[in-house]
Design goal:
Layout: H1 2-109
Length: 110
C-alpha cells in the first residue's frame, strides 16, 4: 500500500510537472501572440495616422488653392471697381470745374 501511495505521489508530481510545463509553454505562446497584436495595433494606428495626415494635407492644399484663386479674383474686381469709380470721380471733377469756371467768369464780368 505504501509503495502504491509512493507511486501515486510520484505520478502526481510527474503530472504536476507536465502541467506546469504545459502552462509555461501556453504563457510563452500567449505572450508572443500579445506582442504580435501590439505590433499590429501600433502599425495599424501609425498607418491610419499617416492616412489621415495625408488626407488633411490634401484638403488643406485644396482650400489654399481655393482661397488663393478667390483672393486673385477679388483683387481684380477691386481694381476694376476702383478704376470705374476713379473714372466717375474724374468726370464729376470735370463737371464741377466747368461749372465753377463759368461761375468765376460771370463774377469777373460783374
Amino acid at each position: 500500500m505504501q509503495k502504491k501511495l509512493g507511486d501515486n505521489k510520484e505520478d502526481f508530481k510527474d503530472r504536476l510537472g507536465d502541467l506546469d510545463k504545459y502552462y509555461s509553454e501556453q504563457m510563452e505562446e500567449l505572450s508572443g501572440n500579445i506582442e504580435q497584436v501590439r505590433v499590429m495595433a501600433r502599425d495599424s494606428v501609425n498607418a491610419k495616422e499617416k492616412e489621415l495626415t495625408d488626407l488633411m494635407n490634401k484638403n488643406i492644399k485644396i482650400i489654399q488653392t481655393f482661397v488663393d484663386e478667390n483672393i486673385d479674383d477679388m483683387i481684380q474686381e477691386r481694381k476694376a471697381t476702383l478704376f470705374k469709380y476713379e473714372k466717375q470721380f474724374n468726370q464729376i471733377k470735370k463737371v464741377c470745374c466747368k461749372y465753377f469756371e463759368k461761375y468765376d467768369t460771370e463774377l469777373e464780368i460783374v
